[in-house]
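User: Before I run my own analysis I want an independent prediction to cross-check against. Here's the chain; please return only the structure tokens and, at the end, one sentence I can use as a sanity check.
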Amino acid sequence: MIGIDGCRKGFMITRLEDSVLSFSIESDLTSLIDEKDLILIDVPLGCPSSTSQVRPEPLMRPYLRKRASSVFNVPALQCFSFTQYDEVNKKNKEILNKGLSRQSFGIMPIIKKVNDFVLEHPYLNLHESHPELVFTWMKGSICNYSKHKPEGIQERVDILVGVLPSIKDALINALLSYSKSYHQDIVDSCALVVCAYLIQKRGSFTIPHDVQRNSQGIEMKILLFNDS
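Assistant: Structure tokens:
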């Protein structure tokens, strides 16, 4: 099972194999080409090209309440023809009737890279998920602290270890080995790999329940584990 989060140098990739947890930073996703396991990634898959194509973001925010800022709007597919923020923001308003934040604009290159990869390798068992929603599902309520604070990292580590105690040593070692600038990426990618583990044990469901595909044929959904 694999969990992936975007990071400064590409992707933080966490693997869980035979109860052994491992972390690596990779510039691209080529190491996944022959992967057979379930892969969860915290990058939007499937950009809409009209208001009739429904993404999961509006359905996710009510679950996260004060953590809803972790859910960014996804740019319209047509926006990728432009490189300047003002152009992208204008086009997004034309297509989806809403502007695009600079945070969403800033992650457009990684969105394109990952979606191009999905289109090139459609056989992979690769799906979008969302770490903060996974933590909420695992805990049964939203996290008390922001993951941008040390106590927020510790809270999320405690949640992960509470669900899967066998990963404790490897997770703590990773946090000690990597610089603090990667700690959010470590806990987020680990959340996705634990989510994949729970999906294997309990089954899965999607947000939204009725999944649409965008005009490229990519499913627009968040994959989560059944909580009972």
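Sanity check: Strands lie at 2-7, 10-17, 20-26, 39-41, 126-128, 204-213, 219-225.
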